[in-house]
Design a protein that fits this description.
The protein is 32% helix and 20% strand. By secondary structure, it is of the alpha/beta class. It has a 9-stranded mixed sheet, with helices on both faces. Helix 6 packs parallel to helix 7.
């Protein structure tokens, strides 16, 4: 089944008001890392195997398709086990035919190329398709809780039982963009015993005041007394259109992480891709550096 579900409510969600600022109170001034303007050059091809698991079910949420990308050496090295990256909006990450407006993240090409040039060890990528309940499954609330339980429980158990994974938290990662970014953060924040690192691209950490569905995960972080240990957050954002509107919430989250004792460039990193829009193309361009960032962080 090749279909794309997009929620109009998500577009409303992303229209948050605000302007870019980078000075954090009187404590420190954030100087975000920047990316080169040219696109990365890939040397590999789509040589990994893609498997489909249709209509997977979880309690309290809609059924969804799941895809699994296997590295080139998976069948040759039968004694090897692999780290796993779980990606939300899975229909957008590999196949243009199922992706939003026909543009995918090119994760298969990216991971394959990074493996072939020795930048990363071979790994497995799991793509979790979204549903018509995307907004509610990817944000704080009853469905968000149910979705996190599905990912950290039933889905991870299925992947570990059917593929040769390194199942411990230190080799289990999660990633996504926009609302998929906030749910990636939430999973590591609330299930640090299962997931250790997150790729969080152009995240919506809170909703605009005008939106009826209210959430603010920055408040959750500020109110947390027992914070997760040995976790790492890669956070980034573009500088144009919807990304510019999301920046104030991102800045507030960076302040919250600092106030909890997390150290910039050790426990979390923020990358600013100033000329980028809120789009699959921009996330595809940043993904290789994001993946290398979580794999080379000190929290291993």
């Amino acid at each position: 089944m090749k279909s794309v579900f997009i929620s109009l409510a998500l577009l409303v969600l992303l229209l948050a008001a605000g302007v870019l600022y980078v000075t954090f109170g009187g404590y420190f001034s954030l100087q975000p890392k920047t990316l080169p303007t040219e696109s990365p050059s890939f040397t590999g091809k789509i040589t990994g195997e893609l498997r489909y698991h249709p209509a997977m079910q979880g309690d309290g949420i809609r059924e969804r398709n799941v895809i699994v990308w296997l590295p080139p050496d998976y069948h040759n090295n039968t004694d090897s086990t692999y780290s796993v990256l779980y990606m939300h909006d899975g229909q957008n990450i590999i196949d243009p035919a199922t992706s939003f407006i026909g543009v995918d993240w090119q994760i298969d090409e990216s991971v394959d190329s990074l493996i072939r040039v020795g930048s990363i060890d071979p790994m497995i990528v799991v793509g979790i398709y979204n549903t018509d309940d995307r907004l509610y499954e990817y944000t704080p609330g009853e469905k968000g809780d149910a979705y996190m339980k599905f990912v950290t429980g039933k889905l991870k158990t299925f992947i570990d039982e059917n593929y040769r994974t390194k199942s411990d938290r230190d080799h289990t990662f999660v990633g996504g963009s926009s609302a998929g970014g906030i749910i990636s953060f939430m999973i590591v924040w609330e299930y640090p015993e299962v997931f250790s690192k997150a790729i969080i691209m152009s995240p919506a950490f809170r909703n605009p005041d005008s939106f009826n569905y209210k959430f603010n995960y920055i408040d959750v972080v500020n109110q947390t007394t027992e914070i997760p240990e040995n976790v790492f957050f890669y956070i980034d954002n573009g500088g144009l259109d919807l990304d510019a509107q999301l920046q104030p919430g991102i800045d507030e989250m960076l302040i919250a992480l600092d106030s909890k004792g997390y150290v910039l460039n050790r426990d979390f990193v923020f990358v600013k891709d100033e000329p980028a829009t809120h789009s699959e193309k921009a996330w595809a361009n940043r993904f290789p550096d994001a993946l290398k960032a979580i794999l080379t962080s000190d929290h291993n």
